[in-house]
Structure formats: structure tokens, C-alpha cells
């Protein structure tokens, strides 16, 4: 099967130098990241470093086939060129579009509609999900409705992040809809199972080497968690994903000032953000643009904890126990589909003795049930791919 893979990329697509027709040319190196401008540029290119796990998982699931990743920006820029699309339609048998929370009121999928109208091949939309349930049906932008209409009229397959998205798409008249979860869940099943097996351990509430994730620059929740779980002499490790472009975590230095150490992933420059004055522990901020480097770093942690789905999933891929705090509908949909243990943010935030609550929560996890559910999800994902011919 000749597959045109597009949409959210893996970190390997950082080497794409140019695209012409159906031919993608790569550089034999990654861009350097050292200065403030270079660091922010790299975050903007992916919008959220956690997205690299989605693209990586999608690509990995297709490894038995002849796969070419064609950047979506090339497809969008080439919509006026019939020659480019004639070449694409000749070169590929099927298109797989790696996506995330595409169904949301704040995003209009006009370009996606235009691209898929011109691709004369079946389309698999992998990992599609919602951001918020409330008002979704009434407030979807015209471009997204057009996108759905285009795919309704052609041979299309939707592998959704969860049940609510699947139900919504069926209501829109889509013929093949299968809840499968995010493709990042199945990148390394053995690691995921080791992580799940290790989570039902109340002693993890005493862990001091924790990978934290949240929304620094917006709310102080993660800082509160650090103070609740870490001893005064411990160093907090916080993983930055999109805060530099979305949540007002700024670097108050010149654009060409060195602020990032690529070897360690640490932000070495001065930072400024709301609630930073609340820190009562030494802390480091790290950010990764290579998922292997991220996994290697996180493998040295005892626990992954926080409000970022993919910030915990990458720890699970490395076999590290991970517990998520659910903050929104998109996170709940993915967690409930996979059957992973999680704590509601409202519940966690009001707990006075968070460490005791965490120990109690972990002690009640049914390990075998959780692993069996995950294994069933993985089999379901493989079966859905097989049904499509992938």
C-alpha cells in the first residue's frame, strides 16, 4: 500500500527541506536550537511538542507499508496546482491524516476541506477528537462543516480519540467511524503495560523524581502540586510543551541570547510568567523536540504527574508510572476510552492533604483490569487498521 501520510508530523519531519509535487527532500540534520528566537520558532512549528507523539504514533502504525510523509502545508499551498494533485493522485493509494482536537468551535478546517476535495483517494482521519462537548454541534465553523461534507461524499474512515467524537461523526452521516484512541497510545505497548503495572503503588506518593506538566504562565496549579508532593530540598522538573507560545511563559532577553541547552533539554535563560513568585522549591524547565531524547530523560523519573495528556503518555511509553489530572473534555474522552486511572482536577485541587489522597488513590487501582482494558484497546486499534487495509 502506497500511503500519503500528512497532518500532525513526527519529530523526524523537522528535517524536511522542501517538497515538489510528490517528492519530499530531507536535510541530514536538525535545525540548531540555542537562542530565544530559535527556541520559540521550534515550538511554533509544532504548536505543542506533545503533538510529535501523535505524528510518531500514526507513522509507526503504518510501518508495514510504503509511507511518505507529505507536509500538510505543501498540500494546502498546492491547491491551485492541478499538476501537483495529479501527481499525488498517481503516486498514492490512500491518504492518512494524523489529527487531534480538530472538532472545536475555534478552528475552521477550510484548508482541510479544500485539500481532501482534490485528493482522489480514500482518506483515513486518525486520532480526530473534540476539545469541548458544550456547544460543539451548534458552533462548528463553516469550514469544518465543509470538511465533514467533503469526507461524507467520498470513501473515508474515521478513527476517533473516543466515544463522544465517534457518536458525533455518526450523527453527521459518516459511514465508517471507529473509536480507537490516540495513536500515541500504541507506539510502545510493552512500555505502556509496564507503566500501568507499576502505578498501583501507594509509595509513589513519596516519589521525589517527578516529571510535572501543566499550564505554567496561566495557572499556579502545578506549583501547588510541587509544594504538596516534593520535599523542600528536592528539585522540581517541569516539562514545557506549548507555554512559550500559548500561555505567556516568556524569555525576557534579546532574541539572539542563548537560552536553551539542546543536550539536556533545559531552558537556561531567564523566564517570566504569572505566579512564578510562588515557587518555594528549586526547579528546572525542560523542553524536547526529539521524542527519543524526551523518553530517555523521562525514563529516569519515578513518576509522571500532571495535567498534560501527552506529557504523561511519553512517560508511559518509557515504562514510567503516570497519573493524569483531567482538566477538560478532550482529556476525559481519551482517558475514559483507554480506561486509564485519573483524578478530576476539581477533586484534586480541593484536597488539603494531597500526598495522602494520592497514596489512597493509587492503592485502590485494579492493575489487571486496567492492563486488560488497554490490551483490548490496542487490539481494537490494530483491527480497525486491518479493516481499512492498513
Offer a quick outline of the entry.
41% of the residues lie in helices and 17% in strands. It has helices at 36-46, 51-61, 72-77, 82-91, 110-118, 136-139, 142-152, 163-171, 189-199, 221-229, 243-246, 291-298, 309-317, 329-338, 345-350, 354-363, 367-388; strands at 2-7, 16-20, 23-26, 66-69, 94-98, 123-128, 156-160, 176-179, 210-213, 236-239, 260-261, 266-267, 283-286, 303-306, 322-326, 342-344.
Q: Widest sheet: strand order? A: 4-1-5-6-7-8
Broad shape? globular
Question: Radius of gyration in whole Å, from Cα?
Answer: 21 Å
Spans where pLDDT lies below 50 across 5 or more residues: none
Strand content: 15-25%
Q: What percent of residues adopt helix (DSSP H or I)?
A: 40-55%
SS-derived structural category: alpha/beta
The number of distinct helices, counting runs of at least 4 residues, comes to: 17
Count the strands?
16
Q: Give the termini distance in whole angstroms.
A: 8 Å
Strand count, sense and barrel status of the largest sheet are:
6 strands, parallel
Average residue pLDDT: 97
Amino acid at each position: 500500500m502506497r500511503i500519503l501520510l500528512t497532518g500532525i508530523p513526527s519529530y523526524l519531519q523537522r528535517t524536511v527541506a522542501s517538497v515538489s509535487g510528490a517528492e519530499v527532500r530531507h536535510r541530514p540534520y536538525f535545525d540548531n536550537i540555542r537562542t530565544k528566537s530559535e527556541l520559540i520558532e521550534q515550538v511554533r512549528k509544532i504548536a505543542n511538542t506533545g503533538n510529535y507523539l501523535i505524528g510518531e504514533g500514526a507513522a509507526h502504525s503504518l510501518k508495514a507499508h510504503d509511507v511518505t510523509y507529505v507536509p500538510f502545508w505543501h498540500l494546502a499551498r498546492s491547491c491551485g496546482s492541478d499538476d501537483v494533485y495529479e501527481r499525488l493522485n498517481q503516486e498514492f493509494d490512500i491518504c492518512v491524516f494524523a489529527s487531534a482536537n480538530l472538532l472545536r468551535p475555534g478552528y475552521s478546517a477550510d484548508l482541510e476541506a479544500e485539500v481532501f476535495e482534490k485528493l482522489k483517494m480514500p482518506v483515513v482521519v486518525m486520532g480526530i477528537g473534540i476539545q469541548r462537548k458544550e456547544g460543539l454541534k451548534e458552533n462548528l465553523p463553516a469550514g469544518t462543516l465543509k470538511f465533514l461534507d467533503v469526507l461524507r461524499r467520498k470513501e473515508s474512515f474515521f478513527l476517533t480519540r473516543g466515544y463522544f467524537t465517534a457518536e458525533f461523526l455518526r450523527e453527521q452521516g459518516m459511514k465508517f467511524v471507529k473509536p480507537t484512541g490516540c495513536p500515541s497510545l500504541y507506539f510502545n505497548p510493552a512500555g505502556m503495560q509496564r507503566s500501568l503495572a507499576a502505578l498501583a503503588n501507594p509509595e509513589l506518593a513519596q516519589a521525589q523524581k517527578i516529571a510535572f506538566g501543566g499550564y505554567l504562565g496561566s495557572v499556579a496549579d502545578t506549583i501547588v502540586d510541587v509544594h504538596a508532593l516534593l520535599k523542600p530540598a528536592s528539585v522540581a522538573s517541569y516539562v514545557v510543551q506549548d507555554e512559550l507560545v500559548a500561555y505567556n511563559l516568556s524569555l525576557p532577553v534579546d532574541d539572539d541570547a542563548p537560552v536553551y541547552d539542546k543536550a539536556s533539554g533545559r531552558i537556561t535563560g531567564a523566564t517570566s510568567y504569572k505566579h512564578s513568585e510562588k515557587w518555594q522549591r528549586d526547579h528546572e524547565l525542560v523542553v524536547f523536540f526529539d521524542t527519543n531524547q524526551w523518553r530517555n530523560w523521562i525514563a529516569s523519573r519515578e513518576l509522571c504527574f500532571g495535567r498534560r495528556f501527552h506529557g504523561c503518555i511519553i512517560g508511559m511509553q518509557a515504562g514510567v508510572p503516570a497519573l493524569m489530572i483531567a482538566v477538560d473534555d478532550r482529556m476525559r474522552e481519551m482517558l475514559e476510552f483507554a480506561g486509564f486511572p485519573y483524578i478530576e482536577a476539581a477533586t484534586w485541587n480541593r484536597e488539603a492533604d494531597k500526598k495522602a489522597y494520592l497514596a489512597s488513590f493509587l492503592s485502590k487501582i485494579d492493575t489487571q483490569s486496567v492492563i486488560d482494558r488497554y490490551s483490548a484497546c490496542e487490539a481494537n486499534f490494530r483491527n480497525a487498521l486491518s479493516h481499512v487495509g492498513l
